[in-house]
């Protein structure tokens, strides 16, 4: 029975993905009313997080930012579902990749890459970067992810990422994959969404981020150092509805030469600058929680 329900849900998402963007954005406007005005989805969390990040903003300013976020979040949902069936030529009218040629320059030197990013803008589009490669069309482009408890949504996101050329690797398996790619001399770039919410035991570091002290993962940095990846930060802009610009900003070609935790610290600094430039594009419903006193004492810099 459960598999039948999952199959029907995926079929419904597939049919939704066939709608033109104009219809999908009309649906997003309707969802905005439901999610924000009626359900008030995690509204108290969003307000608390925004108030901490922008203590000097006025109530009207915070309300405008809040509304902009919920409008973008509903757009993110329909845009992501659309990726199940979107033609590649249509995709590249809506996603521009700047600086991506630097990734292929690394591949020319025989160096694999890593992209570090936050829950900012529509990160699902990033797996399409491999479709832009000219000299290394065989390179593997993937996303390290945490499998969702909801199996229907988990299967949905895997299908979406595969349609844009991406490989989905659960975080517990990524080291094995990277070692095998190295053995095969197969160039690759994996994206690490590195601003998740670790629990107290998983947090190895505490940093100041958007007005609060938060626990953060350092596992992505450890992998990049171990594999000797060239590392890029992904900056995101949204100049118009449905249009994203992704800029690959080089962070280091030699992460092992950097002091421990420096790469993670730089990432959070750059992510905060991106968020403050356009706060509507950040996932305020799920940003890291405050650092506990016990974690703060043992794991801060």
Describe what this molecule looks like in 3D.
With 301 residues, the chain is of the alpha/beta class. Helices cover 46% and strands 19% of the residues. The protein has 11 helices and 9 strands. Strands 1-9-8-2-5-3-4 form a 7-stranded mixed sheet. The chain has a two-stranded antiparallel sheet with strand order 6-7. β6 (205-209) and β7 (212-216) form a beta hairpin. 35% of the residues are buried.
The overall pLDDT, averaged over residues, is 89
Structural class by sheet pairing and helices: alpha/beta
**Spans where pLDDT lies below 50 across 5 or more residues:** 292-301
Terminal-residue CA separation: 51 Å
SSE order:
HHHHHEHEEHEHEEEHEEHH
Lateral arrangement of strands in the main beta sheet: 1-9-8-2-5-3-4
Query: Which radius of gyration do the C-alpha atoms yield?
Result: 19 Å
Number of strands: 9
* Quaternary organisation of the protein chains: single chain
Total DSSP helices:
11
Question: How would a crystallographer describe the biggest sheet?
Answer: 7 strands, mixed
Helix content: 40-55%
Beta-strand percent range: 15-25%
Overall, the morphology is globular
Characteristic key phrases:
301 residues, alpha/beta, two-stranded antiparallel ribbon, 46% helix, disordered C terminus
